[in-house]
UniProtKB/TrEMBL annotation, chains A, B, C:
<feature type="transmembrane region" description="Helical">
    <location>
        <begin position="284"/>
        <end position="303"/>
    </location>
</feature>
<feature type="transmembrane region" description="Helical">
    <location>
        <begin position="347"/>
        <end position="369"/>
    </location>
</feature>
<feature type="transmembrane region" description="Helical">
    <location>
        <begin position="214"/>
        <end position="233"/>
    </location>
</feature>
<dbReference type="GO" id="GO:0005886">
    <property type="term" value="C:plasma membrane"/>
</dbReference>
<keyword id="KW-0812">Transmembrane</keyword>
<dbReference type="InterPro" id="IPR002229">
    <property type="entry name" value="RhesusRHD"/>
</dbReference>
<feature type="transmembrane region" description="Helical">
    <location>
        <begin position="66"/>
        <end position="84"/>
    </location>
</feature>
<dbReference type="GO" id="GO:0097272">
    <property type="term" value="P:ammonium homeostasis"/>
</dbReference>
<feature type="transmembrane region" description="Helical">
    <location>
        <begin position="116"/>
        <end position="141"/>
    </location>
</feature>
<keyword id="KW-1133">Transmembrane helix</keyword>
<keyword id="KW-0472">Membrane</keyword>
<keyword id="KW-0325">Glycoprotein</keyword>
<comment type="subunit">
    <text>Homotrimer.</text>
</comment>
<keyword id="KW-0813">Transport</keyword>
<feature type="transmembrane region" description="Helical">
    <location>
        <begin position="394"/>
        <end position="418"/>
    </location>
</feature>
<feature type="transmembrane region" description="Helical">
    <location>
        <begin position="91"/>
        <end position="110"/>
    </location>
</feature>
<keyword id="KW-1003">Cell membrane</keyword>
Amino acid sequence: MVNTNVRVSLPAVCFVWQVAMIILFGVFVRYDKEADAHWSETKKEENITSNVENDFYYRYPSFQDVHVMIFVGFGFLMTFLKRYSFGGVGFNFLIAAFGLQWALLMQGWFHSLDPVTGYIYIGIENLINADFCVAGCLIAFGALLGKVSPVQLMVMTLFGVTLYAVEEYIILNLLHAIDAGGSMVIHIFGAYYGLTISWVLYRPNLHQSKRLHGSVYHSDVFAMIGTLFLWMYWPSFNSAICYHGDGQHRAAINTYLSLAASVLTTFAISSLSAKRGKLDMVHIQNATLAGGVAMGTAAEFMIQPYGALIVGFCCGIVSTFGYLVLTPFMEKCLKIQDTCGIHNLHAMPGVLGGVVGAITAATASNAVYSPEGLINTFDFQGNFATRSVTTQGAYQAAAMCVALIFGIGGGALVGLILRFPIWGDAEDDNCFDDEVYWELPEDEESIPPILEYNNHMVTKNPDM
Amino acid sequence: MVNTNVRVSLPAVCFVWQVAMIILFGVFVRYDKEADAHWSETKKEENITSNVENDFYYRYPSFQDVHVMIFVGFGFLMTFLKRYSFGGVGFNFLIAAFGLQWALLMQGWFHSLDPVTGYIYIGIENLINADFCVAGCLIAFGALLGKVSPVQLMVMTLFGVTLYAVEEYIILNLLHAIDAGGSMVIHIFGAYYGLTISWVLYRPNLHQSKRLHGSVYHSDVFAMIGTLFLWMYWPSFNSAICYHGDGQHRAAINTYLSLAASVLTTFAISSLSAKRGKLDMVHIQNATLAGGVAMGTAAEFMIQPYGALIVGFCCGIVSTFGYLVLTPFMEKCLKIQDTCGIHNLHAMPGVLGGVVGAITAATASNAVYSPEGLINTFDFQGNFATRSVTTQGAYQAAAMCVALIFGIGGGALVGLILRFPIWGDAEDDNCFDDEVYWELPEDEESIPPILEYNNHMVTKNPDM
Amino acid sequence: MVNTNVRVSLPAVCFVWQVAMIILFGVFVRYDKEADAHWSETKKEENITSNVENDFYYRYPSFQDVHVMIFVGFGFLMTFLKRYSFGGVGFNFLIAAFGLQWALLMQGWFHSLDPVTGYIYIGIENLINADFCVAGCLIAFGALLGKVSPVQLMVMTLFGVTLYAVEEYIILNLLHAIDAGGSMVIHIFGAYYGLTISWVLYRPNLHQSKRLHGSVYHSDVFAMIGTLFLWMYWPSFNSAICYHGDGQHRAAINTYLSLAASVLTTFAISSLSAKRGKLDMVHIQNATLAGGVAMGTAAEFMIQPYGALIVGFCCGIVSTFGYLVLTPFMEKCLKIQDTCGIHNLHAMPGVLGGVVGAITAATASNAVYSPEGLINTFDFQGNFATRSVTTQGAYQAAAMCVALIFGIGGGALVGLILRFPIWGDAEDDNCFDDEVYWELPEDEESIPPILEYNNHMVTKNPDM
């Protein structure tokens, strides 16, 4: 009999890690100059004439949209299971709230550490990047949904954020690849990290939980809340950390178009694949988002509106086929149980996005971008001032491999750690069930007043 | 026996139209100068000192709010039926994603086509206008909800967007009427377009689907998500394309106030009309929004805060009475079946908004607006530099007629097209049923674990 | 037999008060200079070079986030009861829509009245402050949820807004305390106002409604929508009216961190307190927000990131313990029935926030803030130019007492008024029931098509 009691382990992990965060923030983290009360002095020193030049006003609306995607988007997308809605939205909440703190530190050490003072200075862009980092772990959570304990999720997040920060440093700083919306850094890494963990934690008798491995009518509607907030705000996600001006503007347009196209091809394939052309909610909830994933790398490139539509067109098809063909195949033959189908929504579109990014980078030209625009878009400055666009394309391709290696390697390592029988995960016949980790309310059927008020219902106008 | 199989027609329509979009975008659509990588050159040429002057920063937050209204607002408002929530939110998603692409082209040809290069240049304002255009079709969808097939909806959207773009060009460019929030262009057109189609597609035996023509408790709560996101973000809708500065500021204030007032009168009439003063969710979900519709035309006018309150006051009353009296009358006597009651929420408040706009335009003065403010608000420049405010009022009234004619005429035409027995729509006894076009999950009652975990429930503290 | 018929009283209150609002707005309220059509003249007079300097662009995104918190956040948080979701989200909608109008007037008279013209000039900051004022009343509503009639709620809001405006004037203007996110002005006042009313309206036989005093599975998921939108947008709430630049920036960062920390300690205590470590949705829905409440006063202070984490850490613990220990104790021993547990979510974290604010104010220094930063943050100008930080700390503490006194005193007064047997509130055995004030749809179980489509279900692929 497996012990799913987390009464000691979960509070212990939460407390110890939160205390560690407080200590580490005390030692390392301060406000950056745009958030510090010395800002009025900074303005004078740097000849900034208006408060509106504070990065807060450029990025805060995008930050809030990204924040909604992380907590409501990912959270509600994972409420689709009939009896795991609490776990879907609740554990998403827990690991995101922890992950963003750890991400501020890890990313800070790699990107924002001042060598003189030894402090990490944080501002609005750090908050966005922390949310991005958390997204990688929430993608991985999608593969594990319903099969692991909250303590395992916390461990998965601790290591996931750590690996992400290293991988991100290699890709963005050492390889100097561009990945504004994170097709590679976030989606490829997150998806293969989660899939590998799921492979290591393979549950041979998961079919014993089959009764709970599906949706009910209203849980599918709840999941659509997640889908739509992800879909609507994805232009903010891909443009949030682009450079000011045309970069953010173009990234939003490209993502908007790509997403629209993937909706149509998702509906098409979903209908084509079913008897009588009936649509499947699983496809609509997930594959419609693939266009956003795949525009991550090339978001701010001059891919042109029709280029964005083509990307979305292909992704909707690939992703829906994944749900139809690959997910059953992977479960049966590769022993990878992928609850939310993150391979279809994140891994494949992420790879497609990385490829699109590499090609469009390699074919960039002064004519299309203008000389200054090319420098801005690809950040050809400092050590990279002389890099050619073809070289850039090659480094983009190399970045994909780095994300893949970190995802699979990290996932294998963390999967092994999570196999220890100490984490309180449920047995194979008890997965996808909120009853294991949540106090559940009594059931709807047992409400007495339903009968009572039905007696009153005769007073209601029957024509309304 | 009617054939509701859309396995060929729906994928065919989605694929062919999406491919057509890609080709047309390839031929016609490029980024505008604020989204193009040449922006750094543009800044120098036009002496723009800061990236914050990029229109993206003026309009992106409003755009995102409008985007939420289109997909979550309209989508969830249409989940109120007990077994058509998938269709409500899902088909809304499909036709909006298609419609916005077609709208970018149609509106682009009329408004943003560069005669020299032959290109349509798109930026953030085009995305907002595309979302606006789609709103017109989604309003029409409200009248047809549950009675048409997704293929019919795609056809309805194709023609709807086309008609909208022409009507909008006549109203905004030829008549030079002001309609920032679209009381006329969006709401009058969309509502009469949908109502006329519904009239042409009259189903004499719709009462056979009566068992499904109503809500259940939780579907009404889902619909409130739609209501509230529409309500909260309507100030952004009406101010999204107003001119920078006081125009956007004033439009947001006016809409905020008008909406607040219509909530109170909606509650009042709803309570007044029912036995024991009980409130009706249909009214609360819909009539509370009428104040936003009616402030569409006059949003940026100097109508003063109390003027906005009066508009909202009247609309809440008119709209709720519509649900109580007009919808049953229209169904019985005029043979117009209006599922969501769009006549009450969009048509009547839209007409009221058009009238308010005409009157307030005709009575505008230099004293109230300041000379420069008058020119800004009514765009009295170029060919229209010498137009008087009374003339403007007359053109505003003429614009209402144009919207009405396009709605009714277009609706009659499209209704006839949709009557062909080739579109896969359901029979009269099978309307409002997701089962026709969606793979439905097994039902909630049949979840075995409910019994199982109830046994565990004895462990729960009964006092919580 | 109590009469719960509100058919006369509710419409009468709505109509009369809305008409009063129109008249008072007509006499008193106009657009401020940034929303008035004379803005182009104002720009010239004040040498403003860009429209982006209009306060609208600094504050509108924050305003919209706050607006979502008021209507969706508070509204859906109160849908957790199994049969009071209509009342939770619907009455929240009604009283917020009324309250914000009355707040614009009341706050306007105290803060924005021009002594020369006799007009209140409103702009975007007034809308934010009106939403803030409404938040105080919605907090109070949380204690009364399910036990009062909509007419009582309207009366509660009328007085609540009035008291709030006076209290706010004393705290912000006379005492010159800082309270950007309203730990004191909003949360302490609102919570004790509601708790005192609930105490006066004590229902000795409320246990007779016990069958409805709990959640069902899906109502808990609905409530999570409210929780998450409150949680995500709280950084906007606390930063919305901070001064431009680093003030808003810092307030957002502090609140973001404080909220993240309270999530972890809430999960920890919730798990620690239950058999087998099972989490309780009541805690997750509420106590996770305590970090936002407690950062209200010190939001823009230089509390440093680790300081914000410590505040959130403590609040999550205190608030969850409140739900475990204090709420049952208060109901049993103090005869205070607090439906939503606002004492745990608003009162205690509010007090903690006030204390943190007083201490951090008293220990502020030129070194940490820079001289100009100190003046900006604490607004040491005009009559207050010579105030020391220690004096400021004392005034912060005094402000807490003012909020407390207004809450308790006002609540006692209003509670007595609401005890008159004329308001249509339900009997003790009929609380928490939407049936009293709402036309309810027929119940889910009685949908015939469920049986029907289950017959079709055999066509569905059973592996999906």
